[in-house]
Structures are given as C-alpha cells and as structure tokens.
Specification:
With about 270 residues, this protein is an all-beta fold. It contains one helix and 23 strands. The protein starts with a strand and ends in a 6-residue tail after the last strand.
C-alpha cells in the first residue's frame, strides 16, 4: 500500500479537476513513496477492506451502541503529529470531487492519536490526514501502482484500528535548473536545498515526449547536487526530488510541475 497526497482545494472543485491537475500535492503523477503498514499510513482493528492492513491497539473510547469507532495515529519524521485533522469519507474519488457523502472528523492529541467516534457501520472509501496547516491531505492507496484507494469497514460496537499515517510535506526547494529554464545537456548539474533531518534523497527526471526513456528514475543520492552524466535527448523534462530520513520515511517532496528544456543533447 502507498500513501498519496492531494490538495484540499482540488478536492473541493466538484468534478472540474482531475487530481493529476493539482501538481502541487498529492496524487500527482508517479506514486508517492510511503507505507500504510504499521509504521506509516494515512489511512486500520476490525479488518479493513481494499488492502488496508488490519492493526491492533488499546481502545481509547467505547463506541456508542450500534455505532463504531475508528482509531489510529499520525506521525511525521517518526514522531507523533499533534493537532492533525483526520477525515473519514463515505465516498472518495481522488480524481473527481475528493471526499464526499457523510464525513466524520477528529484531531490528533499530543501522542499523535485520534479517535473518530459514533460512526455509522458501513464501508468507507477514504481516510485522509491533513498535512499540518496546509490545504493538502494524505491518504492510502492499494493495488498495482497504487491506483486503488484503501477502504475501511466499520462494524457496530467495534473499534477499527488503522495503521499509522505518516505525513510528508511538499516544500523541498529545487535550485537548478529552475522552472522554464533552457539548459545545455553538457555540464548540467541538478541542485536543491538541504532538507532538515534528511539522510538521503531520490530524484527523477521525466521526459515529456512519449517514447523517450529517462536514465534517472528514483536515483538515490546523499548530496544536494548531482552532475547529469548520462545522455539526455533534446526536449522538455520534468524533475522532482524527495527527501528521506535515516529510517527510510519520506519527509518531503518538491513540486511536481518543475520543467526545463534541454537545448542540445543526445541525438540532437
């Protein structure tokens, strides 16, 4: 299972935007790296459906008769995240409309824990955690390439324990090449700002032209600069960097819409 992010602004634009259009956050293009297993998840102890692994825990609050509770934890950089809004959505479509139907909300306490109480028993299609004070939310996906979203079955008189949700931010800054720049493939060096607590980074370069293969996808580096030595064809590319801590937890990613153009290059 993977974790994805979406922009609340996009989620609220009823059926007008696909999530991929909200390049600022989330579900944008390639799958976000993360795990919804017992150490990272945004969105599970009555088994969750749709591939969301069941978790166990100590019930903090008894559900009201005939209803169920959903209990979990939100983390960032391996530590509890306090005051995080969590939403349980009756319906959820990350491409159109976002969170819909009956919605239940809760906030995390000082230990990063939350309990969504008195939930009507049924299967819910989304569990979203807000990324601090931004308009972005993190949610769990399942299936091949994370194309499906995790579902959660709430049973009467029971608490559904959800695997921990690990937040990641979208504020990693790219320095070179800048958006819209035209550069030579010769002596091209990628640069980005150091990110707090990052042990290493992964960067990818995505060709805009179909049929062109990138020599750099999820390339791991410990530095904040990388000389591009493998040949790049002439054309436009999008690039992105992700930061990880020493426990392989994703801390942040850069914007997903930074493009540059190679004015010369292999085969030009």
């Amino acid at each position: 299972m993977t974790l994805r992010k979406l922009s609340a602004a996009c989620a609220c634009l009823a059926a007008a935007f696909s999530l991929a259009g909200c390049a600022k956050t989330g579900e944008n293009i390639p799958p976000a790296n993360g795990s919804a297993t017992p150490a990272a998840a945004r969105p599970g102890s009555s088994p969750a459906t749709g591939g969301a692994a069941a978790a166990t825990g100590v019930e903090k609050v008894k559900p009201a008769p005939g209803t169920g509770n959903v209990q979990g934890k939100v983390l960032y950089n391996g530590k509890p995240a306090e005051g995080i809004e969590v939403k349980l959505c009756e319906t959820f479509n990350r491409f159109f409309g976002g969170c819909g139907g009956k919605t239940y909300t809760a906030r995390t306490d000082a230990g990063g824990e939350y309990v969504i109480t008195d939930v009507e028993p049924k299967v819910y299609e989304g569990l979203l955690a807000r990324v601090f004070d931004t308009d972005s939310f993190v949610f769990a996906t399942t299936g091949l390439a994370g194309l499906g979203t995790a579902k959660y079955e709430v049973a009467a008189d029971k608490t559904l324990f959800v695997n921990p949700t690990t937040l990641f931010k979208s504020d990693l800054k790219l320095l070179n090449p800048k958006a819209g720049s035209r550069v030579s493939a010769q002596s091209l060096e990628l640069k980005w700002e150091p990110y707090a607590d990052a042990a290493y980074y992964k960067f990818s370069i995505y060709p805009e032209e179909a049929g062109v293969t990138s020599p750099y996808i999820n390339e791991r580096v410990e530095a904040t600069a990388f000389p591009v030595l493998k040949p790049l064809q002439k054309g436009t590319y999008r690039w992105q960097v992700e930061a990880y801590n020493g426990s392989d937890q994703k801390l942040a990613e850069s914007a997903r819409d930074i493009k540059f153009t190679i004015t010369d290059g292999a085969g030009s």
